[in-house]
């Protein structure tokens, strides 16, 4: 397979890319440069099991669905908000 002529174009492209890199040039200098986008670091979360009544869970799922439609908060964010509300209410 190393002598397969169908793959010569890959070697040519690699050679051209290395040559461009060594000369610090691009094929199209007017093309926009790609910029590495660093995503926000997400919080570490752990699954916790809780037992809730079905009707309460169904209402919670409805809120999650509505938030997804408006690109609002995610399920973990909503749970954390609810837990913070409970903590503030009973520790405050």
Please describe the topology of this protein.
Blueprint: H1 8-23, H2 54-69, H3 75-91
By DSSP, the count of extended strands is 0
Provide a count of the helices.
3
The amount of beta strand, in percent, is under 5%
Termini Cα gap: 72 Å
Following the backbone from N to C, one meets helices and strands in this order, namely HHH
Oligomer: single chain
Biggest sheet statistics: none
Question: Which regions are unreliable across 5 or more consecutive residues at pLDDT < 50?
Answer: none
Helix content: 40-55%
Mean pLDDT: 85
Could you characterize the architecture of this molecule?
This protein is mainly α and 92 residues long. It has one domain. The chain has three helices and no strands. The chain has helices spanning 8-23, 54-69, 75-91. The protein is elongated and about 70 Å long. The mean pLDDT is 85.
Jot down its keywords.
53% helix, elongated, mainly alpha, 3 helices, 0% strand
Summarize it.
The chain contains three helices and no strands. It is mainly alpha-helical.
């Amino acid at each position: 397979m190393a002598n397969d002529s169908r793959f010569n174009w890959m070697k040519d492209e690699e050679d051209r890319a290395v040559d461009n890199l060594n000369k610090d040039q691009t094929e199209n200098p007017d093309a926009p440069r790609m910029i590495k986008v660093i995503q926000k670091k997400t919080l570490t979360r752990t699954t916790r099991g809780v037992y809730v009544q079905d009707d309460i869970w169904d209402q919670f799922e409805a809120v999650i669905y509505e938030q997804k439609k408006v690109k609002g908060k995610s399920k973990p964010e909503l749970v954390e908000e609810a837990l913070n509300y409970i903590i503030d209410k009973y520790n405050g």
